[in-house]
Amino acid sequence: MSLPSDILLQVFGHREFRGSQQAIIERVLSGGHSLIIMPTGMGKSLCYQLPAIVLADRSRSSGHQEELPHRPTGAPLTLVISPLIALMKDQVDALLERGVSATFINSSLQRSERILRYQQIALGHYDLVYVTPERFRKSEFWEVVAKREIVLLAVDEAHCISEWGHDFRPDYTRVGEIRNRLGNPTTIALTATATPEVQKDIVKQLNLESKSVELFHEGIDRPNLELTVEQVWDDDAKYETIVKTRKNIDGCGIVYFTLIRKLMEFSDQLWADKIPHLIYHGDLPRSRRKSLQESFMNEPGHLVLATNAFGMGVDKEDIRYVLHADLPGSLESYYQEIGRAGRDGKPARCVLLYDERDLATQMEFMNWSNPDAEFYERVHDFLKNETEKINAFGMDWLRERIHYKQKHDRRLETALAMMDRWGVIEGTIQPLKIKVVSELPEHLKDKLSLANKLKRDQSKLLTMLQYVKHQGDRKQYIQDYFGIN
After folding, report:
1. Are strands 33-37 and 102-105 parallel, antiparallel or unpaired?
2. How far is it, in rounded angstroms, from Cα 81 to Cα 313?
3. Strand partners, 103
C-alpha cells in the first residue's frame, strides 16, 4: 500500500510537500473535514487529488470493499465540484498523463460521450470525477453516482457557495443538499479568497458543524507580485499605460475590462497601431473562447484583453503582468485576478488604472445584480401570464416589457438565474424557453434581506475604493481585509 509521500514522488514528481499540504492530506485521509484557503498556484488541487489516489489504492490493496446493494465492485470515488469547465479538462488530462484514472462530466461533452462516461463510472471505472454543480440537477447523473461509494467530496472555488462572497453562483447553494444526499462524505472545501464572514458561511452552507471543520489558512501574500495603482483621467492615459507595459515587460499579460464595449474600443486602437493581441469575453462563441484560451496557454508572449470571464481555469505559470483597465467590484475579485500573475515565483507586475468615472460603472453593475423584491414579483407575474409570448419572442421582447426604455439594464438576467436556481421556473434561459412551476421563495420576496445583500455589495465596493486611495502597504491592507494577522 503506497504512502502519500510515495505517491507525491511517483505520480506528481515532487519530493516534498509544500506548506500545510501534508497536514491537510493526513486530515482528509483520517476522515476529517477541512476548509483550505491557499493562494492561487500554491497547490490546492494536490490536497484532494493525492488523497483520492491513496483511498482508491488502499481499497484495491486490501482486496476488500464494503458490500452495498446494487453497487458494482470498484474503488471508492472522489467527486470534485467545480465551476471551471475550462480547467476540468486540463486537470484531467494532466492526471491521465500521470496514470491517474480520472474524468470530467460537463456541458462541453456531446451526449454520446457523456452517456459513455456515465456507464464507465457506474461500472466502477475512475477514481476521481470532476463535475459542475449544475450536473446534480440531472436524475441520470444521480442514478450513476448512487452506484458508487463517494468517499471524498472536494468543493473547489468554495467562495462561490456564499452570497456574501464576490463570485456567488446560485447552483453552489445546492452543495449542502448534494453532500447530504451523497451520504455526508469527508469534505474538503478550497478557495484562494474568503473573508472570515465568508469562511463561516461556507461551513454553514455545506451543512457542517464549525467544530468539525479544520481551517488551513496559508495566507494570501505573494512576495513576487508588485502591486501598484495609477490614477488616470481618460482612456488615452489607460491606452498609453497598456502599450508601455506591453513594450517594457517581456512575456505574456492580461488586461481586464469591465465592459465588452470598452474592451473592443481598445482592441480596435491596438490593431490600428499594429499591436497584436487576443480578445476574450463572454459574448464570444464557446468554440472561439476555447481556441483563444488554448492560444494564450500554449504560445509565448500573448497580450489578451479580457473581461473577468477569462482567467477562471487559466493555469499558466509565466504571466508577467496583469493590468486592470477598470476598477474591480471587490477586493476579493481583484486579488483572485492578480493571482494569475507570476505563478512561477518570478517577478510580475499588477497595475490598477483608476479613473473616477469607473466607479459609476461598478455601481450600475451592482444594481443589476441586486433586483429588489418588487422587481422579482413583477418578473414572476409576467412569466406566469405571458409565457406563450415570452417563449415565442425571446429575451429581447421580454426585456423591453420589463425594463421599458432601459435597454442596458441587466436585472432581468439576474432574476431569471435566481428563479431557475430555486426551482421557480423550468426550461432554458439561453435560448429563453421556460415555464413557471412554483411561486417565489420567501427570500426573493424579503425586502430586508435583499436590501442587506445590496449593502454588503456596496461595502465591498467601498473597500475596493479605499484600497485604491491607500497610502501605505497595499499588501498589508489586503491581509487586514482577509483577517490575516
Report:
1. unpaired
2. 14
3. 129
Cis peptide before 431 (omega within 30 of 0): yes
Task: List pLDDT tens digits, range 244-270.
Answer: 999 999 999 999 999 899 999 999 999
Sign (positive/negative) of CA torsion 118, 122, 128, 129?
positive
Distance CA 257, CA 362 (A): 11
* 264 in the same domain as 163: no
Residues 230 and 211 in one domain: no
User: Within a domain: residue 391?
Assistant: yes
- In a domain, residue 18? The reply is yes
The residue written with cell numbers 484600497 in the block is: 467
Where among 359, 380, 402 does a domain terminate? 359
Residue 127 vs residues 11, 90, 119, 179, 180: alpha-carbon distances, Å: 14, 17, 14, 18, 21
Cα–Cα distance for residue pair 293/306, rounded to 1 Å: 11
pTM, whole model, 2 decimals?
0.80
Q: What is the pLDDT of residue 137?
A: 87
The one-character DSSP state at 343 is T
User: How many helices, marked H, and strands, marked E, lie in the chain?
Assistant: 18, 15
Q: How many CB atoms lie within 10 A of CB 365?
A: 16
Tell me how many domains the chain contains.
Answer: 3
Considering the domain architecture, whether residues 107 and 136 belong to the same structural domain is answered as yes
Mean pLDDT value of segment 218-223: 80
Q: Looking at the domain assignment, is residue 452 inside a domain?
A: no
Do the domain assignments include residue 477? Answer: no
| Domain shared by 129 and 269, yes or no | no
Residue 344 main-chain phi, psi, to 5 deg: -85, 0
What is the rounded CA–CA span in Å between residue 22 and residue 412?
46
Same domain, 159 and 238: no
Listed in sequence order, the residues at least 6 apart from 345 whose beta carbon sits closer than 8 Å to its beta carbon are 224
Same domain, 262 and 408: no
CB 136 within 8 A of CB 178: yes
Q: Distance (Å, rounded) from C-alpha 396 to C-alpha 313?
A: 31
- d(C-alpha 121, C-alpha 105), whole Å: 10
Q: Does one domain contain both 158 and 181? A: yes
The CATH number of the domain holding residue 273 is 3.40.50.300
**Do 8 and 122 lie in a common domain?**
yes
Q: Which domain holds residue 396?
A: 371-445
The predicted model gives 320-329 an average pLDDT of: 96
Enter the C-alpha cell of residue 448: 430586508
Rg over alpha carbons for the chain, rounded to the nearest Å, is 23
Give dist(CA 202, CA 404) in Å, integer: 38
* Helix, coil or strand: residue 106: coil
